[in-house]
Design goal:
Layout (H helix, E strand, L loop, with lengths): L2 H14 L11 H20 L14 H27 L13 H24 L6 H20 L3 H8 L2 H15 L7 H31 L6 H31 L15
Helix pairs in contact: 2-3, 2-4, 3-4, 3-7, 4-5, 4-6, 5-9, 7-8, 8-9
């Protein structure tokens, strides 16, 4: 037996160990949703070139408006849909490794498509040094969701992580309010700021900590390679969110409005 003949079966065995499914592959519905999501968000982005936008963003900075509008749309879709999916199918929480339904699978694929689209949009228009938290976030999500979609395991775990997008609704609404020159002293902005902080603590830190706790309780059911990937992803996500939360607090609650540019983004450096 040649060395290659000995290596190939071992590689196949380790790939199969990523999940209990022996026929791991992307289903047609996942592929269609993934591609459709990338194209759909790109078409939405392009259509915004013909839509009214704040005067300041009518020129070369229009891409900022388009990007935030795309992120806001995704947050509404994935945040509300993930909560509805868990509410309507609570059995998914009984086994986050194997339990899922078509709604769950489609939502994970749709969000993966969005993150792929947004990754390239960021690389095309923004400086890498200014947006590293978002880029790191997108790469981690793509790797973890990709494994879930391929193995058809851990889709429930991926669905739980998408509930963090509930906070993104208010995070991006904050940026849109600043873009249209809403005063930070206005009631609308203050209400959104409070909801933003609460949902950040619940749906970002709370969900991430719960996911970490779940992983420690089920480590013996998950292949070591995936435990390592998930643990690394969670650590990265916690660090990224600590950075974002610090920027949010500094911008809206600690620094005075005269020390922070009114339309500055906490998602940038």
């Amino acid at each position: 037996m040649s060395t290659l003949d000995a290596i190939v079966p071992n590689i196949r065995r380790h790939v199969d160990d990523l999940g209990d499914s022996t026929d791991g592959m992307l289903s047609s519905i996942v592929i269609y949703t993934l591609v459709g999501s990338i194209l759909g968000f790109q078409c939405y982005n392009s259509a915004l070139n013909f839509a009214p936008c704040p005067k300041k963003y009518e020129g070369k900075d229009r891409y900022k408006w388009r990007n935030i509008m795309g992120s806001f749309l995704h947050a509404i879709i994935s945040g509300t849909s993930s909560l509805y999916c868990l509410y309507s199918s609570p059995e998914i929480l009984d086994d986050l490794i194997r339990n899922y339904n078509v709604h769950c699978e489609v939502l994970v694929a749709l969000s993966t498509g969005y993150f792929v689209y947004d990754l390239f949009d960021i690389l095309a228009y923004k400086r890498l040094a200014n947006t590293w938290p978002l880029l790191l976030h997108h790469v981690v999500i793509f790797c973890c969701f990709g494994i879930a979609m391929y193995t058809k395991n851990y889709l429930g775990y991926a669905l739980v992580s998408l509930t963090a997008e509930t906070n993104s609704i208010f995070l991006h609404a904050r940026q849109l309010l600043l873009m249209v020159n809403t005063s930070k002293q206005s009631k609308l902005y203050l209400v959104n700021s409070v909801i933003n902080i609460i949902t950040f603590l619940v749906f970002r830190f709370g969900v991430l900590l719960w996911m970490g706790w779940w992983l420690t309780q089920h480590a013996d059911e998950v292949p070591f390679l995936l435990v390592a990937v998930a643990t690394s992803g969670l650590v990265i996500m916690i660090v990224v969110n600590i950075v974002l939360f610090y920027r949010l607090l500094m911008s809206d609650f600690i620094l005075g409005k005269d020390r922070q540019p009114k339309d500055s983004s906490i998602l940038d450096k």
